[in-house]
Design goal:
Strand content: 25-35%
Distance between the termini: 61 Å
Number of strands: 6
Oligomer: single chain
Shape: extended
Strand order of the largest sheet: 1-6-5-4-3-2
Radius of gyration: 24 Å
Number of helices: 2
Helix content: 25-40%
Order of helices and strands: HEEEEEEH
């Protein structure tokens, strides 16, 4: 009987060690900060918050106002300034050495600007074509 209990104890102990290693690995691979997803401003009104594992906690006539992601609340902001129109969700994560608030962004909705796309050089194009599918 004692031998059987020792064997069970040994297996349970080994399982606990393995579970602890798995938990540590998952924790290490989890993002340490919000990802700041980049989205088109046109998507804001109909954005599917569940697609980024976020939940709308509060909304108003303009849309989502506060969302929760991984247990943290992010508040909608849209500054009035000379730059492109933007709506983003951020939260304060503390203060820097000068006492200024530091923020992280969950996502940013902004206008897609037309940019010039440079052609791929012929040397690279040949290399791409030579890669077997």
């Amino acid at each position: 009987m004692t031998t059987g209990l020792r064997a069970i104890y040994k297996l349970l102990h080994e399982n606990n060690r393995l579970l602890e290693r798995i938990a540590n690995s998952l924790e290490a691979s989890a993002p340490k900060e919000a990802p700041n997803f980049q989205l088109r401003l046109e998507e804001f009104a109909t954005f599917d918050w569940a697609s980024i594992d976020a939940t709308v906690e509060r909304h108003d006539a303009q849309g989502a106002a506060i969302v929760t992601w991984k247990g943290k609340q992010f508040v909608r902001r849209s500054p009035t300034n000379k730059y492109s129109p933007v709506v983003f969700f951020s939260r304060c994560i503390g203060k820097d050495e000068q006492g200024e608030n530091q923020y992280e962004r969950l996502c940013t909705f902004k206008s897609v600007q037309q940019v010039e796309v440079e052609p791929i050089p012929e040397k690279v194009t040949r290399l791409i074509r030579s890669i077997p599918l």
